[in-house]
Amino acid sequence: MGSKTIVSLLFHVIIVSITLTDAQFCYTAGNFTANSTYAKNLDLVLLSLASNVTNNGGFYNTTIGLGNDTVYGLVFCMASASADFCFSCVNSAIQTLMAACPNQKEAISWGGNPVPCIVHYANRYFFGSLELSPTDAGYNTAILDPSFRVQFDQIWSGLGETVTRASTSSSRLKPEAETADLTSTKKMYIFMQCTPDVSPSNCRVCLQQSVDYYKSCCNGYQGGYTQKPNCVFRWDLYPYYNLFPQVTSPPPSPSPSPPFVISSPPPTNTTIRKGRLTSFYGFQFQLL
């Protein structure tokens, strides 16, 4: 029984409305063949990740197999996701990952439906390791209002303190979510989080590089994100992921999404996506 069949059996009672195309990366660490021992172990790893993540606070890793057939798997639901949202994101991420990387021994998916989650499996031990590549980044095609520029640059220069708070939090199962005033009526909404298996120092490196990468690729646009295997950084001009309960103003109404363009990535193992941001079930997401 192949991976797709096993996962479809696990999730057959759940109807998932996929409004986002999750971002995947297929590593070049080698391939496996259908019905091989590695394929069967991968099936078991993916089933284990999906079955155990919500019972373990949204973070879980596992290892199955021996020798060259060993598969290591990790899953993490971010942004304090509820059990239902976590399971939905992992379900979507696993299915799209299997479709995108059907026979690669290592692959990663950054799910986004309806909250961010990471699913990563490999034929090597990577738990706790700092992994800065590959990188997935995106931005809203709307240009930041020039009148906000001075205050925006001041806030951006202070993100190092946010990185420090996110990386030294007593519980990295909890995201760092902050607001900063651009004007008396407009705020920046900032979200950062690392996978709990990396050290505080490695978390800080990952987040700082994510912030720096966004500035180098997408500076001047009105919101966006950077995702790496160990961390996610996002900022926008409206609340999202239900992380900012103190904000009582409703999010903007959904608007049609234009076609997205994936630009030719300048660095290796990097994808940059652009497009408008739209909403789903009251939350804001990047449509890829």
UniProtKB/TrEMBL annotation:
Keywords: Repeat, Signal. It holds the Pfam family Stress-antifung. Residues 20-126, 132-240 form the Gnk2-homologous domain. The keyword Signal applies. The keyword Signal applies. It comes from Populus alba. This is Gnk2-homologous domain-containing protein. PANTHER family: CYSTEINE-RICH RECEPTOR-LIKE PROTEIN KINASE 11, CYSTEINE-RICH REPEAT SECRETORY PROTEIN. InterPro entries: GNK2 (IPR002902), GNK2_sf (IPR038408). Residues 1-23 form the signal peptide.
